[in-house]
UniProtKB/TrEMBL annotation:
Domain Leucine-binding protein: 30-358
UniProt cross-references to SUPFAM superfamilies, sorted A to Z: Periplasmic binding protein-like I
Superkingdom classification of source: Bacteria
Signal peptide: 1-27
Family: Belongs to the leucine-binding protein family.
PROSITE patterns in the cross-refs: TAT (PS51318)
Entry annotated with the keyword Iron: no
Protein name per its UniProtKB record: Leu/Ile/Val-binding protein
């Protein structure tokens, strides 16, 4: 009997079996997501917080089987708060690492440098801290930029309302001299006009400036009875130190930049009097989701012993929710291809997050998942950020 047909069939069956075995192996290649953030320098705590929020969410997703049957893997790059370095890092993550989503860090100028590349490369870019209004509202015909974070225009409305509650009638503006400051200058002018309040003046300063007394003196002479502060840790600390040197006890209502680092250490006791907007705090009574995330943080990062060790909570919370929403989009898309993931972001249904329950977080007309109603005001108490109770 000719055994060749039998042998041929056996060989074919072996080949098919080997091929079938190869599919799960290939499917185990991880779905990579990228992070471009300040991982060193005076804002390194922000990058650390974002990393922790992303990683805890990734741990949860992977424990549930991952996405598309594959584990998620985080690939990080340090932008050093430098727009040029952030752009190079984003390109590397998309073109070399083939990440499905790039997550952005604290600095609006860095994010603004990445936005045109993300839209041109059709690569989803998810902001989890930088609040510059034009980051998501960038005018692109096909916008690939989404955000789970504050938005300057909405924050500015909240800052004006908070200052008015403190009795301000003629506040002054102290703004970092970069695109983030410009975004808030436009937003604060609009919010003040809507509230019928005049501005005592608008002053700018650089990231490395030490003495802010001249700018503050002009605002005091202009009759400022409160100050709006927009800056990250180091320059914001210099502002409050300059106020101390002047002996001027004017109320300060701040954007959330000081939360990204060692504000109380650099700014001194006056730093604990600054009202600061946030989207979340682990202090106070937590939801079951909050308790679970806090427990997961402590389990993964043994150095977390007290609530001051989860500061800044805003970076953790925004990143945690953003990672889960991105995973839902990838799963719904059934793909890691940028256009498919972008379209799927619009189809995400209800998700019970850490900050809130998201009904429909994104739509073609709105790429920002959080609204003004999701903001709270806080202060530093030592190294811990606590919600205001008054």
């Amino acid at each position: 009997m000719d055994r060749r047909p039998v042998l041929h069939r056996r060989a074919l069956l072996v080949a098919l079996a080997l091929g079938a075995a190869a599919v799960p192996a290939a499917a185990q290649d991880p779905v990579k997501v990228g992070l471009v953030a300040a991982l060193s320098g005076q804002s390194a705590k922000s990058g650390e917080a974002i990393t922790r929020g992303l990683q805890v969410a990734i741990d949860e997703i992977n424990a549930g089987g991952g996405v598309l049957g594959r584990r998620i893997e985080l690939v990080r790059r340090d932008d050093e708060s430098n727009p040029a370095k952030g752009l190079v890092a984003a390109r590397e993550l998309v073109q070399r690492e083939k990440v499905a989503v790039v997550f952005g860090g604290i600095d609006t100028p860095v994010s603004m440098a990445i936005v045109p590349f993300a839209n041109g490369a059709k690569a989803p870019f998810m902001g989890v801290w930088a609040a510059g209004t034009p980051i998501t509202r960038n005018g692109a015909a096909e916008n690939y930029v989404f955000r789970v974070s504050a938005v300057d225009e909405l924050v500015d409305e909240a800052l004006v309302a908070q200052a008015a509650r403190k009795g301000a009638r003629k506040p002054g503006l102290m703004l970092i001299n970069n695109p983030w400051g410009e975004s808030n200058e436009a937003g604060l002018k609009k919010a003040l006009a809507a509230a019928g309040l005049p501005a005592a003046g608008i002053e700018k300063f650089g990231n490395d400036d030490i003495d802010m007394v001249p700018q503050l003196a002009r605002l005091r002479e202009g009759g400022a009875d409160a100050l709006f502060l927009v800056a990250n840790v180091q320059p914001a600390a210099q502002v409050v130190r300059s106020l101390d040197r002047m002996g001027w006890p004017v109320p300060v209502v701040s954007h959330w930049g000081p939360a990204g680092g060692r504000f109380t250490e650099l700014g001194g006791p006056r730093a604990e009097t600054v009202d600061m907007v946030q989207t979340y705090s682990f202090s106070g009574r937590l939801s079951p989701k909050g308790e679970a995330v806090l427990a997961a943080l402590k389990a993964r990062y043994p150095e977390i012993r007290t609530l001051s060790d989860v500061t800044p909570a805003v970076g953790i919370a925004n990143a945690y929710d953003a990672m889960h929403l991105a995973a839902l989009a990838i799963a719904r898309a059934g793909s890691t291809e940028g256009p498919a993931v972008r379209a799927a972001f619009y189809e995400i249904g209800p998700y019970q997050g850490l900050i809130k329950t998201y009904a429909r977080p994104f739509s073609p007309g709105n790429h920002d998942a959080l609204s003004r109603e999701d903001y709270i005001f806080t202060r530093f108490s030592g190294p811990e950020i606590v919600p205001l109770t008054d």
